[in-house]
Specification:
Endonuclease, Chain A, alpha/beta, about 450 residues
Length: about 450
């Protein structure tokens, strides 16, 4: 495939990308991809064990299960040894985690905070979540990705249960200190600021990669603008892996325009999801992308939870942001943007390995299904987990019809909406007074929350 014509490239677009995403690239980084929970957790635990001053852990979900217990033990041990250990979790994401779990950490000396517990007078604020996933030790080493801390991501090799598919990046260099500062800002949003400023070690070069830290906040759309810029500036290749892809119309148009302009745009999404209604919304949007030339693949394995983009064998974005409205403009998210050919090549190789466990979605059935296989690239093969080997049935069916998938998904969504409205109608028909009272209470609660928000003085 020929490269996209025109002078625009990500390198040329870099100043605009930095302005749009509210970040700055810096040099001198070592960046290593971590594929799936077992590798991610091993490096996180190593980093915690090796910390000399601080351990800052932030995650949307921290479960009280086997791997969660392993982390609790590691964090508590370091706190008892005099390390300043702080854990920030999202209240909604961790609502199923027992109080005993947090008490165990606090009793050992770990500082623990919950982000956005229920606020009676701010009902709409309850929708804003801390979806970030990051670990920083000593302001020198950081791990950022799409993973949460739970047995779904760890898997169980003895029981033959593979982990969820996810991706993270380990980074050393100036960005690690910036990630520590990002943690401090989120920590202050959940309570008092840190008692002492975070350690700010000298920015000693650790490698050759350029890295930018992308902090997304509600209403700022930084992650959205970053993805839009990457797709717009891509000249030959834009490969996207996303767990909950329900892209806004403008982003779908950007991806379609790139494909029509000759860019190899590929989208890898889950075939089976832990949120079936989101999968249906994903499938409803297939047809315009397919018509524009975007190639769509559905992963056939345990839940695909990774969120990554790699373009032109040079640029990559990995982190917590999904390509949907909630993640792009409604939550706090954390991503890394990396300019490094070695990293991008490794992520491309992983993408192709993932396609071996996937089926392609097409508009019409091809005469020769084998042709659907992506053309091989001259990539340096990287180590890939052997528990995600291609299933045997893949040889029997390499494709799925996008129209059929979209039709079934549209029917399921319509059925869900119809059932919901039918239940509301029945409640009002048979229980009019309680239903009216509940509606009035809800409306009054929302009105009170809006009034409190309007009268509150803005922060200085």
């Amino acid at each position: 495939m020929s490269a996209r014509p025109g002078p625009l490239s990500l390198e040329a677009a870099l100043p605009g990308l930095e302005r749009a995403a509210g970040c700055r690239f810096s040099t001198g980084h070592r960046v290593v991809p971590l594929i799936d929970g077992p590798a991610i957790f091993a490096r996180m635990l190593d980093a915690i064990a090796g910390a000399r001053h601080t351990v800052h852990l932030e995650n949307y979900i921290i479960r009280d299960d086997r791997i969660g217990g392993t982390f609790a033990e590691a964090l508590a041990r370091r706190a008892r040894e005099g390390i300043a250990v702080r854990v920030l979790f999202d209240w909604l994401g961790c609502k199923g985690t027992s109080r005993r779990y947090w008490r165990r950490l606090r009793d050992a000396g770990v500082e623990v905070r919950a982000f956005q517990p229920p606020a009676l007078l701010e009902p709409l604020a309850n929708l804003v979540r801390d979806h970030r996933k990051g670990l920083v030790t000593d302001g020198r080493l950081a791990i950022v990705g799409g993973h949460c801390i739970g047995d779904e991501w760890a898997g169980d090799a003895a029981a033959g249960i593979p982990p969820w598919r996810d991706t993270a990046l380990e980074v050393e260099g100036p960005a690690a200190a910036r990630l520590d500062q990002a943690f401090a800002r989120m920590w202050a949003r959940a309570g008092a600021p840190l008692r002492s400023p975070a350690d700010a070690p000298a920015d000693a070069p650790a490698g050759d990669a350029r890295v930018a830290v992308l902090e997304s906040e509600p209403g700022l759309e930084r992650a959205y603008r970053c993805v839009e810029w990457m797709a717009t500036a891509a000249r030959s290749r834009c490969w996207i892996t996303d767990a909950y892809f329900v892209a806004p119309p403008r982003l779908r148009e950007v991806l379609g325009d790139a494909a029509r302009d000759g860019v190899d745009v590929r989208l890898l999404v889950p075939g089976d999801s832990d949120l079936p209604h989101v999968r249906n919304l994903t499938r409803i949007g297939y047809r315009p992308l397919l018509r524009a030339g975007v190639r769509i693949f559905e992963w056939r394995g345990p839940m695909l939870h990774a969120k990554s983009i790699v373009t032109d064998g040079q640029w990559a974005r990995v982190g917590s942001s999904n390509l949907n409205a909630s993640s792009l403009s409604g939550n706090y998210e954390l991503d890394l943007l990396v300019d490094d050919a070695a990293l991008a090549t490794g992520l491309q190789a992983q993408f192709l390995r993932d396609l071996d466990r996937s089926r392609e979605v097409v508009v019409t059935a091809p005469a020769a299904p084998a042709r659907l296989r992506p053309p091989p690239l001259a990539l340096v093969p990287g180590p890939g987990p052997d528990y995600h080997a291609p299933p045997r049935e893949r040889r029997r069916r390499l494709f799925a019809l996008g129209g059929q998938l979209a039709l079934v998904a549209r029917r399921q969504v319509a059925l869900g909406v119809a059932v919901g409205f039918a239940i509301v109608a029945l409640l009002f028909a048979f229980f009019p007074r309680p239903s009216a009272l509940a509606t009035a209470v809800l409306a009054g609660w929302l009105a009170l929350g809006a009034l409190v928000r309007a009268l509150r003085r803005p922060a200085p």
